[in-house]
Amino acid sequence: MTYAPLRLEDYDISPTHGFLPSEPPLRRLPDPYYAPWEDIMDRFNQYLLAHHIRRLVRKMPVLSTDKLSTQAEYRRAFSILSFMGHAHVWGRNGAVSEPASEFLPASIAVPWVAVAEFLQLNPVVCCAGVCHWNWQILDDTAEDLMDIDNLGTIHTFSGSLDESWFYLVTTAIEAKCARGLSAILDATAAVERDDMSQVTRSLHQIAYALGEANTILERMYERCDPYVFYWKIREFLAGWENMEDAGLPYGVLYEGVDDTDTFSLDNWNSLFRRFRKYAGGSAAQTPLLQALDIALGIKHFPTGERGPQSSVAEARNKLQAQGVPEPPTVNSYLVQMRDYMPGGHRRFLEDLAATCRIREYVLLECSDSLLHMGTASDPRVLLRQAYNGCVDLIKTFRDKHIMIVSRYIIAPAKNGPMTPQRLAVPESSKLMPPVAYMQAMAKQTPRQQSGGRMGGDSLSADPTMYPQTNIAATLKSSEQPVSKCPMQNMLAANTRPKSVTLQVVSEAQDVGRLARKLEDGAVARGTGGTDAMQFLKQVRNETAQTRI
Questions:
Q1: pLDDT tens track of the chain, all 548 residues?
Q2: Which one-letter DSSP state was computed for residue 92?
Q3: Cα separation of 490 and 486, whole Å?
Q4: Contact at 8 Å (CB) between 101 and 247?
């Protein structure tokens, strides 16, 4: 096959901003037709805090996407529909009895699916929606416009500085590594010309970009508190795949897209097959890390399995004998995550994998004897050192990522929320099966349906939303001692709410929440639905094994 050099611009990739847009994302759709969306986003955090999101979303008209005309407008539409969609699914309406929503109203589902099809990615919160297309420049006169301290977010779920910082760390890393993408293409072209010195220089440029990425990642701890992230932010970023424990055993039905009558009780099995299961936002969805893996020939295999192990010498002999590259990436999760990237970025990874042979070049040019006989000035020694330096920096980046997951997910999940160990919640907080849920919804009055609360708008706020602030919910109602005075017992019984039966549950039984305390040995799943630590550790180890 004849080599044809790749151009970043052909894949909607910016030479200066990498996988970010070259210009700051739109902060508002210009056409007043989309005012119903933008009006909600104007006070999005307030509506979410006041538990109005589901009611407002259900009242929205189903808008057409025909009036979106530019790529920037489609990106803006995808981003705000993602925020509203996940707020509807996970935000609830404040009623303890209301689980995560298994149904996405047509007012969100129909345009969201249409916009996602245009951008060629899945209609769910992803790295592109909250990080790549959700930033703004604070000072247009700054020396480094894309410095993390000169960036702000456009939207967040919680309205917190912690959530903004969490997104901006990824945004800044993408911007700083733009030069690394150009260097990858330069190195690929230099391999085809057998220009060893240029390959080495390009690898040094990749290493420089990786060094900046490591520095920015370390700053996560500065302004994003692990407790706030785990208990107040993380759930909104979750998808609806492998989320049985969080209340979505079937996934989510996109009304108006995958159904004709969601309240029909006929042929339930057929209806359930139309529920969609998508992973949530994940670092694996950034094309940057996958591009670096492809460029350096880092192979990843199915989680829990070891790929074919071979020594550097064996790999080199195979190349010399057969003239073919090593096996391609076969980790199905990483390949699946490409469906959460814009179409141009996904095609870039595919074309890069078909043309980039940097690792093979280093293997063939640098023999093991260089470790003992080569001089420091030998170009082959310098090439090998430059290559291994890049691999070491990616391994270091993944070490830091594992540490972040330990501090931001594992530790808070084990420690639990800052409340007494037992909470009093209504018995009705148990999850309702989809059939029962829809039967109950069908019996509600129009006002109750538009409000979105199973028990009406008069129900109290959900004490599990921010459990550390809900002092009243710490009553241990079922553990109250029985008084010897009959009148006291009667008074105590009469003061309890008659509309619900209270029972005590532990934090580990925080029904239907992704953010909950985990028992010893329980698996901490990432928002992408995977066993986070097992996946990350295997990816890190496979990176380390790539050194030559």
A1: 578 899 999 999 999 999 999 999 999 999 999 999 999 999 999 999 999 999 999 999 999 999 999 999 999 999 999 999 999 999 876 555 578 999 999 999 999 999 999 999 999 999 999 999 999 999 999 999 999 999 999 999 999 999 999 999 999 999 999 999 999 999 999 999 999 999 999 999 999 999 999 999 999 999 999 999 999 999 999 999 989 988 899 999 999 998 655 555 556 677 778 899 999 999 999 999 999 999 999 999 887 777 655 556 666 566 666 655 554 546 778 999 999 999 999 999 999 999 999 999 999 998 776 666 667 789 999 999 999 999 999 999 999 999 999 999 999 998 888 754 333 444 443 444 555 445 554 555 444 444 333 323 333 333 333 333 333 333 333 344 443 443 334 334 444 333 333 333 333 344 456 677 776 666 677 666 678 899 999 999 999 999 99
A2: -
A3: 6
A4: no
Handedness of CA 181, 182, 183, 189 (dihedral sign): positive
**Mutual angle of helices 312-322 and 358-365, in 10-degree steps:** 100
Tokens, residue 8: 């970043």
Which has the closest alpha carbon to 177: 139, 132, 133? Answer: 132
Residue type, 406: S
Whats the size of the chain, residue-wise? 548
Rounded to the nearest 10 degrees, the angle between the axes of helix 196-218 and helix 161-176 is 170
Alpha-carbon span 36 to 28, nearest angstrom:
12
413 token code pair: 């999940």
Task: Give whole-number Cα distances, 48 to 57, 88, 121, 406, in Å.
Answer: 11, 9, 26, 28
CA distances from 420 to 227, 475, 505 (A): 16, 9, 11
> 35-42 and 71-91 are packed helices; what angle lies between their axes, rounded to 10 degrees?
60
| Three-class DSSP category at 103 | strand
Instruction: Find all residues with CB under 8 Å of 487, minimum gap 6, and list them.
Output: none
Q: Is 486 helix (H, G, I), strand (E, B) or coil?
A: helix
Question: 103 and 460 in contact (C-beta within 8 Å)?
Answer: no
Give CA–CA dist 99/245, Å, rounded: 11
| Strand pairing class (151-153; 135-137) | antiparallel
Pairing type for strands 151-153 and 502-506 reads unpaired
Maximum Cα interatomic distance, the chain, rounded to a whole number of Å: 94
Question: Is-contact 222 400, C-beta < 8 A?
Answer: no
- From residue 122, alpha-carbon distances to 50, 174, 314, 341, 342 in Å are 29, 21, 40, 8, 9
d(CA 312, CA 303): 23
3-state helix/strand/coil string of 340-366: HCCHHHHHHHHHHHHHCCHHHHHHHHC
Print the SS3 string covering 277-305: CCCCCCHHHCHHHHHHHHHHCCCCCCCCC
